[in-house]
Amino acid sequence: MGQGNLEIEVVTGRALERLRRIDANIEAGIDLWLLELGEEGLRILQEEAPVKTGETKETITMELSRSSVRIYPTTPYAVYVEFGAKPHRIEGKPLLTWLDPETGRRIWAKHVEHPGIVPNPFVARSRERFRREVRDRLIYALKLAVKKA
User: Fold this and answer.
1) Using a CB cutoff of 8 Å and minimum separation of 24, what contacts does 141-147 make?
2) Distance between CA atoms of 112 and 88, rounded to whole angstroms?
3) pTM
């Protein structure tokens, strides 16, 4: 034994190259995967949204970034639909007005007694459905990336 470098060399050969290809395939597919997941989440949330007026369903929005997708209703009352509301009084400032759906006449009042809202947790239901979908698609995408490498 001479005096030389003391070193350990690890030669990975094809294994390291394969891992690099897997990483490249995963990176290339993430944007498409997020878009597809977002579209699926949007579809699920729209299916679960209440349709009394259709406004909540129509205003569901999707935001896509490099690493995430967010889908949510934008109506100001969506939180009350999701979690409900106790009976309460609504005060006019100075008056409340609306059209009577049966007669078409305009009604004026200083206040009304709102009967409350029964919770309709459509976002929670959607989240659970979406969670299962994400898991299934992630497993599929990883298997596909490994297969391509």
Assistant:
1) 141/26, 141/29, 141/33, 142/26, 144/25, 144/29, 145/22, 145/25, 145/26, 145/29, 146/22
2) 8
3) 0.67
Contacts of 81 (CB under 8 A, 6+ apart): 50, 56, 117, 119, 120, 122
CB 122 within 8 A of CB 45: yes
> Which amino acid, 24?
A
More confident residue, 136 or 6: 136
Q: Is 110:94 a contact under the CB 8 Å cutoff?
A: yes
Which pair of tokens denotes residue 118? Answer: 């029964």
CB-CB contact of 122 with 50 (8 Å): yes
Domain locations in the chain as residue ranges:
14-84+119-148, 85-116
DSSP secondary structure letter of residue 52: S
Count of alpha carbons within 13 Å of 130, Cβ hemisphere only? 24
Q: What pLDDT is stored for residue 9 in this prediction?
A: 47
